[in-house]
Amino acid sequence: MHHRHIVKKRQDSVCDLIKGAHDAWSGWVCVLLVGLFTGAVAGVIDIGASWMADLKFGICPQAFWLNREQCCWSSNETTFDDGNCSQWWTWSEVLGQSREGVGPYIISYLFYIVWALVFAALAAALVRMFAPYACGSGIPEIKTILSGFIIRGYLGKWTLIIKSVGIMLAVSSGLSLGKEGPMVHIACCI
């Protein structure tokens, strides 16, 4: 029996060899693609959360899409006292005030609170309206799915999109949570 199997393998065509290689590597290719896409989504989440967290403090008027660190890279100044650079404007400077004093401090504080509330409320509203399964870390539910239960819609595209946007908003609002647990759910959605 074993001899016939070996002789048959010698007679396989190139097409059969390609099919066999595809069967052997298709699982690994799928894992590779999921890993790459998950890494890309994690990068977008990290960059977006960093930008939105800095948005609570001020803005880069030359390029609003840059966070504080990236805005100050383009500056020709060699030292930055207390992380301040002339390229980055605090919200009090945007409104025509200086950086120092009680008035600018109160303005900056109010903008910080307003942005944090807007980010947190927007994250909660998106989850509540579009993807209720996107709430929480998702790890207990993933464990439940792995044990054999079916939760319909839990790994859908809307859950992926809203969870990704929601985690950016929630982290940048300053809520006490991390991105690691939700990334498990996001990776499973992919």
Key traits:
single chain; Cl-channel_core; two-stranded antiparallel ribbon; chloride; mainly alpha; 190 residues; (California timema) hypothetical protein
Topology (elements, then pairings):
Layout: H1 2-10, H2 14-55, E1 58-59, H3 68-73, E2 89-90, H4 91-94, H5 102-130, H6 139-146, H7 157-173, H8 180-189
Antiparallel strand pairs: 1-2
Strand order of the largest sheet: 1-2
Instruction: Outline the low-pLDDT stretches.
Output: none
Helix count? 8
* CA distance, first residue to last residue: 44 Å
Number of strands: 2
**Percentage of residues in helical conformation:** 55-70%
Radius of gyration: 25 Å
By secondary-structure content and strand pairing, the structural class works out as mainly alpha
As an assembly, this protein is single chain
Overall structural domain count: 1
Largest sheet: 2 strands, antiparallel
Q: Residue-averaged pLDDT, rounded?
A: 84
Strand content: under 5%
- Quick one: overall form? elongated
Note the run of SSEs as H and E: HHEHEHHHHH
